[in-house]
Amino acid sequence: MKDNTKEKVNIKHLQESIDGLEERIDRVNSIKSIFFKGVLRGLGSVFGATIVFAILISLLSWFISSTEIIWINEAIQAVGLADMFNK
């Protein structure tokens, strides 16, 4: 008799746990949640790409202004960017 009651309690506890998990899964998979995750992922990608490109452009600008390679200097003169790079 005790075993039967214990099993019923365990089954009831398991059912409550399953119901709680189903509610959490429904909240995580809701359209509102998915939308906000997408917005945040998009903004993070934009900010991250902006920072990476800014660093790359800064490094490229520094390299161009400090180099003495003839073809780079001629290309800068030809494009008309000599004033920008002080060449």
Overall outline: rod-shaped
Strand tally is 0
How many separate domains? 1
User: Which H/E pattern describes the elements?
Assistant: HHH
In the predicted model, the low-confidence regions spanning at least 5 consecutive residues are: none
Look at the helices and sheets and give the structural class.
mainly alpha
Round the Cα radius of gyration to an integer and report it. 31 Å
End-to-end distance:
95 Å
Residue share in helices?
over 70%
Average pLDDT value?
85
Count of helical stretches:
3
**Beta strand %:** under 5%
Largest β-sheet summary: none
What does this structure look like?
With 87 residues, the protein is mainly alpha-helical. Helix content is 84%, strand content 0%. It contains 3 helices and no strands. The chain is rod-shaped, with a radius of gyration of 31 Å.
Topology of this structure?
Elements: H1 2-28, H2 31-66, H3 70-79
Please summarize what this structure is.
Helices cover 84% and strands 0% of the residues.
Short descriptors:
87 residues; mainly alpha; 0% strand; rod-shaped
